[in-house]
Amino acid sequence: MSGGTQAHRWIAPAQLSHGAISAAIADPIQKRRPGKVWFIALLATLPFVLVTLGAIGAVLTVGIGLSGVNTTVVWGFSIANYVWWIGIGNAGTLISSMLLLTRQRWRASINRFAEAMTLFAAGIAGIFPIIHLGRPLYAYWLAPYPNTMDLWPQWRSALVWDFWAILSYILFSALFWFTGLLPDLATMRDRATTRAGQILYGALALGWRNSARHWQVYETYHKTMAALAVPLVCSVHSIVGLDFAASLMPGWQESIFPPYFVVGAMYSGFAMVVVIAIFIRWGLSLQAVITPAHFDVMGKVMLFASVVMTLSYATEWFMAWYGGEHADRDVVRYFFAGDYRWLYYALIACNCVVPQALWFPFARRNLWALAAISVVINVGMWFERILIVWNTLSHGHAMSLWRTYHTSLYDLAILFGPLGLFVLGFLVLVRIFPIVSMHEVRQISHDEGAAA
């Protein structure tokens, strides 16, 4: 395949000029008012935001007893939601950094909102461990702040690992996302037609002049950050996996958990990126820069992750049999015949069976089919997170402590409420910042012209 033909996959031929690319991405922000659909979506998210704030306020005033936790299943929706959201958050920066280091040109159209997804998802994830604390008002005890009593954090606690993992990851991701915006913020500054826009984007652009020196520093810095991002992301979600694997509970004490959690994060994260890309492409009319080829390659990545996840599940079953430990074998039997068996069958269907449709090009290029598969994957990955908690804690070593988890309305509130908060963040973001990287898409256009 020639270089010109390859480039055509990532950008529509009619949009090859630099001016057309800038206009396609910047005009929805600077020259078009929000439409009715945007306002309706914004209003639709407000009840979810209020539910989230109400749920947080309730647990701060009443206590964790509002959820369905009991003396055995002490981790419930809060920890499962934390793992699910941090997985989605990890994927954004991982996707962007790995694609940058491997010089994948199709990254240009998706990296900006994938990195923004990281910030929103990681921020939401950070709420859940605090909600789940028995005394959330003292969450600041997790930090080694100076105090007269010398009460330092318990470093053997997984909560402390999570605190530092989330904090370092959010700070790094914010820097990675913002510095990637600098050239585009300068473009927005130069195209601004109002004084307020010139001041806002001028201040955020930090004096970017598009000079050769600026580009040299930018390229070096961005690639260095990407190289640091890959081990950081892997370590963050490995730490989440070690929250479970460092225990002695059957079904958790497995060395496969850290890499298994990292692949699961990439799996659910790519599925979320696909859903976001479909809505952004439609809502901002970006069909010229987010092409069917982008969805085709993302579908292939999800297919690969599905195969790895299926192998991971099979490895879990095999090792329980091969290890010969009665408690481990009993937990696997509980997967298939226990109180939550129907959720486990749904998990296998969502994560292993349904994504096999992505072997067919039609499923990868049909946006309706791809959106449905992506939603199914994220539902299945949430089932996986909740069942990691429920199955083991409901069926541990001591038979006298076997209990099932019963969901409460509060659990449902903290499950669905943050989804609205996540959508609200994106609705605000697309009205302020360019959601697709203009300078990287222009680079593809330049290469296309050179190849032609």
TrEMBL record:
List where in the cell it is found.
Cell membrane
Q: Which membrane topology term applies here?
A: Multi-pass membrane protein
InterPro entries given for it? Answer: NrfD-like
* A Pfam family reported for this protein in Swiss-Prot or TrEMBL: NrfD
- Keywords, ordered alphabetically: Cell membrane, Membrane, Transmembrane, Transmembrane helix
Q: Where are the transmembrane segments?
A: 37-62, 82-101, 113-138, 158-182, 226-248, 260-280, 301-322, 342-360, 367-390, 410-433
GO cellular component term, pick one: plasma membrane
Hey, which family's this protein in? Belongs to the NrfD family.
What protein does this entry describe?
Polysulfide reductase NrfD
Look up and give the organism this protein is from.
Methylobacterium tardum
Taxonomic lineage is:
Bacteria, Pseudomonadati, Pseudomonadota, Alphaproteobacteria, Hyphomicrobiales
